[in-house]
Structures are given as structure tokens and as C-alpha cells.
Specification:
23 strands; seven-stranded parallel beta sheet; alpha/beta; Rossmann fold; 5 domains; six-stranded parallel beta sheet; 20 helices; 582 residues
Length: 582
């Protein structure tokens, strides 16, 4: 396999999506939908489906339909790189496709005018990118032209991140079934999308007075609301507070709003530029942005779809919307992973009055309207809440109606233990008093040890850094378990901060790079305050037997596992007496 081909090896979920489509195709299904978040690699999946279907369609042709030039060119490039011997041609604007090509990549705008130039009976596969648009009259005419004359025998495959439309209709009205879907948190866990650091900024926008047109707020009316000195100043301050220094893509309410907001940023010394439909040096601006020469790129109606720059670190939503499609596409521009990018900061300027039709992250993540994430990832919060289990119906309803993770945790702690089957993320519910301000260091350490004990976690070291210069104090915890980059320890950190008022961070144990003294290693593994009373090292059996008075039984397995992983020596802790004082 050539180096060029290697980059198209499917990710596991992409390969599964392809297998599901082929399996359903073999079973006779001909209308299918792939529901994939932005950043899942729809173009690569389409490329792999085309490759594997070509031997099955008896020299039939493939038609790939999209609505933006960038999507057409991106798809053509991927196909040519992965299948260099395939005859591919583009039909868009001044570019006319070669009817003899095996794969035609066409814009819906050109195809709706030129469809009569094609013999539909020759096309065995029709792929619709961003297929939520396929319910529009122009799309329906094209699909009927190519599909109906084959008596529905052609494969009609749609791909979208947002099946549901603003008008309440769904892409499933046209595509019979979902062949495959995967959610954002799953792709985050796999490392193919980054988590979101979400901040909603409430403003007095009075969006209930803004007229709607075409399924969204009317452009001129929305611009009049967002393009005021007060709202622009609020937007700039929010960015400075939450995302200053992070490479930012901003979505604005109009061309004028984009230019004025960019001027506000520039007046403060930030490197900001604008893209709109009339920009002539578009490629030059995008190159500067990709290189990092531009801090903020503001746009109106240009970069919502088909734009891919994984190094984007912040998405600034300076334009409210009622459209799930617009919101999801804007959000998705910042979710692709890149080096030194642990998350994407999302700043969302929303109406304080929680406009009934305004679409936002709460609706997208299936959380209650008005949900407050306070810098957390709403999609991961939704998954954590879905695993809460209580047996009391009143408590169940209260949890469903809660508008923050803090409110849900307080509800769970107030319930009798026998009523709560599982807390956030399916874990047991830690119980503590919430500290509104910083408690003193001694109490903070005591509360941390209590919560770690409740969670069955072991801290081998705590470093306390007192507060200063308006900053909170920090407690750095070295945990016995090095595998701390997961949901369990994320929420445990959140509980520790709520219980103390201090900033809590984790320091993973240092990896051993040379042979170490087993006794010294064991001492470093034990929590503070515990001492080794007896130590017997049998080198021939590669086993150590020790006694550690007072060590709680629930810690034994975790300590033994960590020690054996670091040393390669079996550890048996025997003969200890453990007391839990009341």
C-alpha cells in the first residue's frame, strides 16, 4: 500500500458505518441515512462506500450531490487520492462534467438546471451530502429524476449531522432508515473530537421582537439587535474573559455586524479580519488564519459549512439562531482535534429571556431549556445525567427539571441513600457540604481525604499552594491511579472543588524509567500517614509480602495493582488491622 493510501485507512467507527451500509444494501435497503457529527469524516466514509460498492453495481455510475464548492472539491480530492484510477468529474458553475466519468460530483444548483443532460438509468448510487437539505424542491426534483426512473433500485444515501430541520420535518421523511449514527461524546472518547468548554453569555436582546424568515431570525432585524455598541462590547469582554489568546472563528449576524465587531477587536490591539460573500482575497485571509497570523476570523454566511481548520480553539457565536442546522454546523467548526488543543471554547451570546424558538446547546445536547454548563461540556453532562438512577418519582421529576449539574448533585445528596441507585455518570453519590467560599487549608485537606475515601481513590501526596493576588488557593493531588483522564476523576475533581472552594488539580505519578528500590517504591505508593511494619522480598518468586497497619481494605487492590504495574513485582499485603473510626 502506498503512503498516499495509508491516510485513508478507516477509523473503527468509519469502517463500521461502511459495513452497516453494505449489509443493509445486501438485504435490499435502498434509502439510508448516516447521522454523523461534524468532524466525523463524512467525506472519507463516502469515499470508502464508493470504493466498496463499485464492484457490486455492474459498472453503474455514482452521483455525489452537495451544495457548496468547497464540499465538491474536498470530495473530489479525497476520491482522487484514495482511488487514483477512478474517472471523476465535477459539474458546478462553469465546470461541466464529463458524462463518461464513473463518478459525477455535482452542485445541486447546477444539477437542478442540467439534470436532463444525464441518463438517470446509468446511476446506481446517489449520495446526498448535508441531506437535511434534500427536502427542498430543487433537491426533490433532482432525486426524483435520477431515482424514480430506476424504479427506486438505486442506492439513495444521505449524510448529515442534523437530520431534524427548523420546520419540524426530518431527513428521515425521505431516507427510510438510519444505517449508522454516532454521538459527539463517543467521538470525544475515541479522540476524534475534542470536548467543549461552553460558556453561555446572557444579554438583553429581546429576540421575541425579531421577525423570522426562512426558518431563522430575519437577517436585518437580527443584525439590528446584535450590532449595537452595548452588545458588541459585551461580546468582546466575554471573549477576553474566556478565550483571549485562543484562535477564534466568530459567526456574526450580518456583513456590517462582522466588520464593526472586527473593528472593535482591532481597536483593542487584536488581529481580526472578516470574511463575507463579497470578500475578494478570501484564500489569502484563510491562509493567514490557518498560519496563526490572524487571531480572530469573523464571518457572515461563509464558513458555516465546508470549512475545515482543526487548529481553531474557540467558536464565538455572536448570532443567535432558531435553526438546529445553523447552530450545529457553527459549533462543529471547532471540534476537530489538533496538537495542544485539549478542548474547544464555545462562547454563545444568548437572549436573557430564553426566547422560545432560540436554538442552543441545551436543545442540541437534549438538556432542559436554560441549562447552565458553567464551562463544562454539555454533551458529556447529558451523558452523566442519563446514568442517574433514583427510585423516588418526585425526585426523578425534579432531576429532569433541574437546570444545572450543581442542582442535580444537591438533589441527590438530599435524598436518603436507599433511594439513590446511581449518581452522576453511574457512580455512587459522594456526600458533602458545599463550600461557598474557600475553607482553611486544614479543613480542605480533611474534606478532600473524606471524599477520596468515599470514592475509593487514594492520594499519595497533596501540595497546598495558598491563595494570592486575587487567585484561589490550589491543592495538587497525586493519585495512586495514573489513569485519571476519564469521567470518574473529572467529576471527582468537581466534587472536591465544590466541597472546599479551592482549585483542585491532579498530578499523575511519575513513570519509573529505571530499576527502583521496591521498598522505596512501595513507600511512595502508600497514602500519607501509613508505614510499612514488615517487608519480605522473595526475589526468586518475584513477590513481596508486607504488613501496613491501619490500611483500609478497599485500598488494598488499588495499591497492589499500581505497585505491580510500576515494578513488575507481585505484592501481597497481609496481616494488617484496619479500623474505620466513627
Amino acid at each position: 500500500m502506498s503512503p498516499r493510501r495509508k491516510q485513508f485507512l478507516a477509523r473503527p467507527y468509519q469502517d463500521k458505518a461502511v459495513r452497516e451500509v453494505l449489509s443493509l444494501y445486501d438485504d435490499g435497503a435502498r434509502k439510508m441515512l448516516l447521522h454523523l457529527p461534524t468532524g466525523a469524516g463524512k467525506t472519507i466514509i463516502a469515499t470508502l462506500i464508493i470504493e466498496r460498492l463499485l464492484p457490486l453495481i455492474d459498472a453503474g455510475k455514482v452521483l455525489f450531490i452537495a451544495h457548496r464548492r468547497e464540499l465538491l472539491d474536498q470530495t473530489a480530492e479525497k476520491l482522487k487520492q484514495h482511488l487514483p484510477g477512478l474517472a471523476i468529474s465535477i459539474d458546478q458553475g462553469a465546470r461541466r462534467a464529463d458524462p463518461a466519468a464513473q463518478v459525477i460530483i455535482a452542485s445541486i444548483q447546477s444539477l437542478s438546471k442540467r439534470r436532463q443532460a444525464y441518463r438517470p438509468e446509468l446511476f446506481s448510487v446517489i449520495i446526498c451530502d448535508e441531506c437535511h437539505r434534500a427536502l427542498a424542491p430543487s433537491w426533490i426534483e433532482v432525486i426524483e429524476h435520477f431515482n424514480d426512473q430506476r424504479d427506486g433500485d438505486a442506492l439513495l444515501l444521505g449524510m448529515t449531522a442534523t437530520p431534524r430541520r427548523t420546520d419540524g420535518r426530518s431527513a428521515l421523511d425521505l431516507f427510510d432508515l438510519v444505517a449508522y449514527e454516532i454521538a459527539k461524546p463517543e467521538l470525544q472518547d475515541l479522540g476524534y473530537l475534542v470536548p467543549i468548554q461552553y460558556w453561555g453569555v446572557k444579554a438583553a436582546l429581546s429576540l421575541d421582537q425579531v421577525k423570522r424568515s426562512g426558518g431563522d431570525f430575519q437577517g436585518g432585524a437580527l443584525s439590528a439587535v446584535m450590532d449595537t455598541p452595548q452588545v458588541r462590547a459585551l461580546t468582546l469582554r466575554a471573549w477576553e474573559d474566556k478565550a483571549m489568546g485562543r484562535k477564534t472563528l466568530a459567526f456574526c449576524a450580518s456583513v456590517r455586524h462582522a466588520h464593526r465587531l472586527a473593528a472593535d477587536f482591532a481597536a483593542q490591539g487584536y488581529r481580526a479580519e472578516v470574511l463575507d460573500g463579497r470578500t475578494r482575497n478570501r484564500d489569502e485571509i484563510l491562509d493567514r488564519f490557518r498560519r496563526g497570523d490572524v487571531e480572530l476570523l469573523l464571518n457572515y454566511g461563509v464558513l458555516t459549512e465546508g470549512f475545515d481548520d482543526p487548529s481553531i480553539q474557540c467558536v464565538l457565536l455572536a448570532r443567535p439562531t432558531t435553526s438546529p442546522l445553523v447552530y450545529n454546523q457553527c459549533l462543529g467548526r471547532g471540534l476537530r482535534p489538533a496538537p495542544n488543543k485539549p478542548h474547544c471554547t464555545v462562547i454563545d451570546i444568548v437572549d436573557r429571556s430564553t426566547h422560545q424558538l432560540q436554538y442552543g446547546v441545551s436543545e442540541l445536547a437534549d438538556l432542559p431549556r436554560g441549562w447552565s454548563s458553567r464551562g463544562r461540556d454539555p454533551f458529556r453532562e447529558a451523558r452523566a445525567i442519563a446514568q442517574v438512577q433514583v427510585t423516588d418519582p418526585t425526585a426523578f421529576l425534579a432531576i429532569k427539571q433541574a437546570t444545572s449539574l450543581e442542582e442535580i448533585q444537591d438533589l441527590l445528596m438530599a435524598l436518603p441513600a436507599e433511594v439513590v441507585v446511581a449518581g452522576l455518570d453511574g457512580e455512587s453519590v459522594p456526600r458533602y457540604a458545599v463550600e461557598q467560599t474557600m475553607c482553611d487549608a486544614e479543613h480542605a485537606e480533611s474534606r478532600i481525604r473524606d471524599l477520596l475515601k468515599q470514592a475509593g481513590a487514594v492520594a499519595t501526596k497533596m501540595i497546598v499552594s495558598p491563595p494570592g493576588d486575587g487567585e484561589r488557593g490550589q491543592i495538587e493531588i497525586t493519585l495512586l491511579n495514573a489513569a485519571i483522564n476519564n469521567e470518574r476523576y473529572y467529576y471527582l475533581q468537581w466534587h472536591l472543588e465544590r466541597a472546599t472552594g479551592w482549585r483542585v488539580t491532579y498530578a499523575a505519578p511519575k513513570r519509573q524509567t529505571r530499576r527502583v528500590n521496591p521498598k522505596a517504591l512501595l513507600r511512595s505508593t502508600l497514602p500519607d500517614g501509613y508505614r510499612i511494619q514488615a517487608f519480605d522480598y522473595d526475589e526468586a518468586a518475584n513477590r513481596i509480602v508486607v504488613q501496613v497497619p491501619g490500611l483500609q481494605r478497599e485500598l488494598l487492590e488499588e495499591i497492589s495493582t499500581a505497585f505491580e504495574a510500576a515494578s513488575g513485582i507481585e505484592l501481597q499485603i497481609q496481616g494488617q488491622l484496619a479500623f474505620d473510626f466513627l
